[in-house]
Task: inverse folding
């Protein structure tokens, strides 16, 4: 069973601005005997501050909150990119992460070559490759562009390719940042159909977005994040009005 | 890699907590093992680096060979005259030395940036950090392979046959794993301390002059016993000596092995201590 369990997750970024990051300062401190102050001297930015929640199969979680609330950081922590500074993250199931627009794709390679590269990234067996290639080709509708370097693609085409690829590998848990909303209306319709297919197989979706209508239609649960805390956690029709009400009052 | 491998029968699980004690080391070893298991990705990325760098160029990667050949010819004629060397001995020696040094300085120079250059990949998905180090080793090994042509031509011109080719196989394996260790260690340091690349650059320059690369070890009389203090010397000797038909003495083999062990211990200490922080730093 796929599942996500987050307990007291804390993530903080050390800030090494200016020459604070250089050896000079380190050595200077060591010489003047102040090395022991180092841990306390360090400036850290708390991105996530004691988060706890669990997700069961079938749950579609939407993350909402202002810029800097920690949505992308949380997605990266769930993907295992940022390991916890404190707390624990347990993720059971194959994870597909749509966090970065380029997905490690190389602009000078053709779409087809990038599909192969992506399969290597996910450690996929060689015999699954042909099927993925067909599937992505069908979904992304790139036609002859599939054999051209992807830097010649429009941003919408790149998004279609990336979305098709990330969802072709049938992850049990799909983590998605909001960038993929760049597609046109027709694409959004098909993206939704494809996602519905993934989620209906008792999988988990975690999506971060600013668009309330996406949350209302796609999600079964909404996590309202504020400055690294969970402000509110519940079904969309409970959380969204509260969030939108506050946003309106704030502006 | 267990957590994203779509072909595994058992359900992969990712259980992340702050590391303590020996867990640092186990995680680091698991990263290296997972990275080696994904060797096809590392090799593809390294190969693409070379392929894309020379896309649109007429000679392509042959430029690597040409520039090395020009350097060997230029340095060979100048220093051969300066040191009154016989070219049929000096040029083969010099060609091997320069090609190997090109590889070493490539590994060390790229090593500082293996993780910072891959920042996009590191923040996009969880893959073993070792993959990025393998990519750098493969890229530099491909450059080395192109430069081998220079050595072969020099040997052919002077009608020499490289001796003891079989002895090179274990030595090459040692060089490969040492290159991986150096890339990981410098990569971790270069990610945390942005001063490391220029420091390594100047250290390499010093190493180039104190290591027998342009001059033969036989030329030195005073202070000969201190030469083994230079880690590059034994490692070069075990690869170059057999090709030149001279089997290095036992102390050189021991020193080469000893330095490799030290390198790996230092690498494992650094990598296990700092691996989980790399994504925060890139």
Result:
């Amino acid at each position: 069973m796929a599942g996500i369990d987050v307990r007291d997750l804390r993530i903080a970024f050390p800030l090494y601005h200016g020459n604070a990051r250089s050896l000079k300062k380190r050595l200077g401190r060591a010489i003047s005997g102040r090395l022991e102050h180092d841990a306390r001297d360090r400036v850290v930015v708390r991105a996530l501050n004691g988060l706890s929640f669990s997700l069961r199969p079938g749950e579609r979680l939407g993350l909402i909150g202002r810029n800097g609330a920690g949505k992308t950081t949380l997605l990266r922590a769930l993907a295992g990119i940022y390991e916890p500074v404190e707390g624990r993250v347990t993720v059971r199931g194959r994870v597909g992460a749509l966090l970065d627009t380029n997905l490690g794709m190389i602009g000078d390679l053709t779409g087809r070559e990038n599909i192969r590269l992506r399969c290597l990234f996910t450690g996929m067996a060689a015999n699954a490759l042909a099927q993925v290639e067909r599937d992505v080709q069908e979904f992304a509708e790139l036609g002859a562009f599939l054999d051209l370097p992807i830097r010649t693609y429009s941003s919408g085409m790149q998004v279609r390719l990336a979305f098709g690829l990330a969802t072709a590998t049938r992850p049990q848990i799909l983590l998605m940042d909001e960038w993929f909303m760049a597609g046109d209306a027709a694409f959004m319709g098909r993206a939704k159909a494809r996602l519905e297919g993934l989620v209906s197989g008792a999988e988990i979706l975690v999506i971060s977005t600013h668009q309330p209508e996406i949350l209302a239609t796609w999600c079964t649960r909404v996590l309202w994040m504020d400055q690294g805390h969970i402000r509110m956690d519940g079904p969309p029709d409970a959380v969204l009005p509260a969030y939108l009400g506050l946003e309106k009052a704030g502006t | 890699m267990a957590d994203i491998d779509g072909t595994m029968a058992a359900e992969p699980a990712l259980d992340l907590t702050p590391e303590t004690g020996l867990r640092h080391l186990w995680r680091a070893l698991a990263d290296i093992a997972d990275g080696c298991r994904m060797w096809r990705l590392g090799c593809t990325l390294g190969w693409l680096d070379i392929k894309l760098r020379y896309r649109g160029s007429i000679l392509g990667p042959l430029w690597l060979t040409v520039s090395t050949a020009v350097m060997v010819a230029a340095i060979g004629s100048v220093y051969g005259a300066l040191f009154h060397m016989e070219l049929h001995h000096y040029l083969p020696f010099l060609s091997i030395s320069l090609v190997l040094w090109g590889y070493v300085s490539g590994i060390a120079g790229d090593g500082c940036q293996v993780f910072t250059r891959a920042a996009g990949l590191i923040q996009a998905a969880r893959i073993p950090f070792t993959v990025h180090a393998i990519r750098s080793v493969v890229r530099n090994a491909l450059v080395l392979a192109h430069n081998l042509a220079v050595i072969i031509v020099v040997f052919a011109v002077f009608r020499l046959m490289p001796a003891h080719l079989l002895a090179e196989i274990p030595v090459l394996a040692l060089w490969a794993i040492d290159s991986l260790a150096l890339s990981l260690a410098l990569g971790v340091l270069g990610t945390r301390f942005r001063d490391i690349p220029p420091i390594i650059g100047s250290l390499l320059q010093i190493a180039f002059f104190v290591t027998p690369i342009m001059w033969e070890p036989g030329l030195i009389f005073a202070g000969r016993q201190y030469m083994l203090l230079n880690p590059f010397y034994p490692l070069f000797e075990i690869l170059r000596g057999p090709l030149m038909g001279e089997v290095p003495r036992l102390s050189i083999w021991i020193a080469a092995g000893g330095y490799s062990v030290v390198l790996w211990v230092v690498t494992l200490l650094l990598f296990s201590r700092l691996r989980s922080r790399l994504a925060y730093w890139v």
